[in-house]
Amino acid sequence: MAESRTTNPEHVTTGPLPGATPCVLDVKGLKTHFRTREGTLRALEGVSFSVAPREILGVVGESGCGKSITAASILRILPPEAHIAGGEILFQTRNGEMVDLAQLKPKSRRVRRIRGDEISMVFQEPMTAFSPVHTIGNQIIEALRLHQRCTPQRARKRAVDMLNSVGMPRPSQLIDSYPFELSGGMRQRAMIAMALVCQPRMLIADEPTTALDVTIEAQILQLMRELQQDLGMAIMIITHDLSVVAEMSRNVLVMYLGQDVEYGTVEQIFFEPKHPYTRELLASVPRLGKKSGERLHTIKGTVPSLYERPEGCTFHPRCPDCIPGLCDSQAPGVFGLDDRHRVRCHLYRK
Fold this sequence. Notes:
The protein is 29% helix and 24% strand. By secondary structure, it is of the alpha/beta class.
């Protein structure tokens, strides 16, 4: 087995290296559980990662691995049956204060002041995120006036300016459009404008290019990069598309069934993947140059239900490197390969 230093998975050091810029967001051992009639479902079970200023973090994994629940936990917009059962969500506000969002009540004034103002989110489907009975302008202006003191006239001007910044044609006219009057690409731009109008320190983008054609997808990704540099914000981009992660991210978090299974730089994840799940994900990406008739690699099985969470390593039923008697009975710790690369796998235990 590869040698490495081991770390308690609930208390992984995720912050910046000594002398580095402090994190905008530092998540440590986050656990989010759902109360159901059948018992407690552990949707997140010890997720740890950090995001630095001006960094783009890519979060990848199959559907059902906890990516969106992680975002909802950070924003404290979980459904009533869910609660944060453990861990920390440390966020650095504009004034430099570190706030543990996990300790605040979801409906508290402090959380509402941070959510939408200092942390914003671009949702997966703007058609359902926007209200269909209000114009996009009214909704952007409402977000601005809710968090910052603005006259109606000043708020409208800032909304028009932001729509112009995200590449909306004729923003002074389209600001009075209803969501259904816009194309998918234009709705996505409007969603980004609403998320950025308060100039947040951090943006969470959940599948921001889903259902967009490749041309519009490229435009949206380029737009996000430009705005990130202009505003100096951190971005956490959630996607199943590894090509988006390779193009956009500096660091990558790989999730499986509510846990972080690998975390490292984009070069480490794509060229030196350590966790079997990461390697399987990368092997499943379609590539040019395949021979005619050659089958696309697929990962064995499917992500299990939270009701049927496997014992030991949660990936062991699908893992090609499973060690019988170990992986199926003992949960692996988190092993640091270096200061920027860690993996949750028995293969790297001492």
